[in-house]
Hints:
The chain has a domain at 45-161: Cytochrome Bc1 Complex, Chain D, domain 2. The protein is 43% helix and 2% strand. The chain has 7 helices and 2 strands. The protein has helices spanning 4-29, 36-39, 60-70, 72-75, 110-120, 131-144, 156-161; strands at 57-58, 154-155. The longest helix has 26 residues, at 4-29.
Amino acid sequence: MFTLKKLLTTSAVSVSLVIALSAAVQAQSLGTPVNESQLQGFDLIAQPDGSGYPAGSGTAIQGKAIFERRCVACHGMTGEGTSANTRLVGGDMQSEERPIRTVGSYWPHASTLFDYVQRAMPADAPKSLTSDEVYQVIAYVLHLNGIIEDSLVLNKDSLMQVEMPNKDGFIDSSQAL
Length: 177
């Protein structure tokens, strides 16, 4: 005769067994091996020193059309965002209130913005922008923040020259002992 305790114990063991068997079956047939050519360029990181930038270029004028097509749903028409996490413009890191962290007020390097957009945007289709489109969107976002002129051609070389308002707001302690 089964008691409620035995029934629950038997059910828990059965569920655990089904989960374990499912995991074993999935592990045997999960994914496709990746070769070296598929990994090429996957782990490039755009650094402030200019390493990791792909070829390409663009202006804010060009970037506006891409932004309106691919970015407005989350970031709003002028970068005002649909939430605090999606706001791109404005903000003040020196305010007495809780600081609003935006591209213009928080990010220390334009390369950080470039790298992030290249890898993660748009949120519904990461890595779907071409290198030219990334430069163009970045130029537009920097222009919205009053950091560059709309006609500046942004590329690997000019991006390194962009001075972000909060460039001195971070202390690199990665090498500190």
